[in-house]
Write a structure and sequence with these properties.
Elements: H1 39-54, E1 59-61, E2 71-74, E3 86-96, E4 100-105, E5 115-120, E6 123-128, E7 134-139, H2 141-154, H3 166-175
The protein binds cobalt (II) ion.
């Protein structure tokens, strides 16, 4: 069976998967490595992409849809029909730059909350693509940031755990009806 991974970049009325939100325990479980990148994984990737585009996000990790696997989808240009999305299976960070930068982040699992987080600027990683082929990538700027954010999800870490300004954090969470107790500062 051949499962086509690429999907149309559009908002579906009924996205195939449900996105769990801050406070749901599935978000805190470390994800397991994918043993074989098969048709089942490609179907998951496809449904994750459809769900991500429907939610107007630029990244989604499998734990966010309740699947305990090291699978990530990303698209920093969701409005550009020409560019393909990026699929990361079993990603490993090989090196990070000494330079760090502060950028505002959001998360489909914490809707409405946008806060500044400090992370390394440049990363090099290895991973498998949707056909199981080994790949490497050097990422900078928004892509680097998005990959680091999504890889945190595979370890049960959420961006709010990394926010240094606790005052702003609590304020934003309460304003958006999330419990500050759901944060596990790292
Ligand atoms: Co997220």
């Amino acid at each position: 069976m051949t499962v086509q991974v690429l999907v149309e970049k559009k908002k579906l009325e009924k996205p195939p998967l449900t996105i769990y939100t801050l406070g749901d325990r599935v978000l805190r479980q470390p994800a397991k490595r994918v043993k074989s990148v098969d048709a089942e994984i490609r179907l998951l990737v496809r449904e994750m992409l459809q769900t991500m585009y429907s939610a107007e996000g630029i990244g989604l990790a499998a734990p966010q849809v309740g699947v305990n696997k090291q699978v990530i989808v990303l698209d920093c240009e969701p409005d550009n029909p020409e560019t393909p999305p990026l699929v990361l299976i079993n990603p490993t960070i090989k090196s990070t730059s000494g330079e760090v930068c502060i950028l505002q982040e959001g998360c489909l699992s914490i809707p409405g909350v946008y806060l500044e987080v400090k992370r390394p600027e440049v990363i090099e990683l290895s991973y498998r693509d949707e056909y199981g082929r080994p790949q490497t990538l050097k990422a900078t700027e928004l892509l680097s940031r998005a990959i680091q954010h999504e890889m945190d999800h595979l370890n049960g870490v959420l961006f709010v755990d990394r926010v240094e300004n606790k005052l702003a954090l609590n304020e934003e969470l309460v304003k958006n009806k999330f419990s500050p107790k759901a944060v596990k500062s790292v």
